[in-house]
Amino acid sequence: MSDRGTVARQVRVTVPSPGCLVAVMAPILVALLVASVLMVMSHRQESANVRNEEEALARTVTQARSYGRDVLAQVSDDYPGQEAVRGVAERYDGRLVSYARSGDSLTTTVRFFAEFEDTSMYGVHHSRAHRCYSFTFQRDAEGGPREKTTQLEKCDAALEGQLLLR
């Protein structure tokens, strides 16, 4: 009792029991553990997806080289026709976008596709990587055919306004 006749208020600090602390902290620790596992899995999936896409784009380079060699092999006295060039492109999973032929040169644009697997938390999806290349076939000083290949920076922008020759 206080000197005024009232009951003095006592402040008590209580410490929760260890069992109560475990009951409060366990769900928090489980949530942190699950979140960290999901982050690691997501990072690994993203790395695998990037690697798969890079491999697919490397395949488009191989396809482009093979296309250029095959078209060059068909050049004799004259450049091959549009249907022959389209057939060569399709053999290498490509689509002929443009065909321009003049007396001393042939310029084609081909869009090459390569499929790859893209994984996510929801499953595996099949995606396509693509690149466009411009091929110019000309006669060299000796009269033999030669080829110049250029990767187009913006594949979709290069296709705008052009008629797809399919």
Q: What order do the helices and strands come in, and which of them pair?
A:
Elements (H helix, E strand, L loop, with lengths): L17 H57 L7 H10 L2 E8 L3 E16 L2 E17 L5 E7 L3 H5 L7
Antiparallel strand pairs: 1-2, 2-3, 3-4
Plain-language structure description:
- Mean pLDDT is 84; it is low at 157-166.
- With 166 residues, this protein is an alpha+beta fold.
- The chain is built from 3 helices and 4 strands; from the N terminus they run H-H-E-E-E-E-H.
- The protein has a 4-stranded antiparallel β-sheet with strand order 1-2-3-4.
- The longest helix is centred in the N-terminal third of the chain and has 57 residues, at 18-74.
- 43% of the residues lie in helices and 29% in strands.
- A hairpin with a 5-residue loop joins strand 3 (123-139) and strand 4.
- It has helices at 18-74, 82-91, 155-159, and strands at 94-101, 105-120, 123-139, 145-151.
Defining traits:
43% helix, alpha+beta, disordered C terminus, 166 residues, rod-shaped
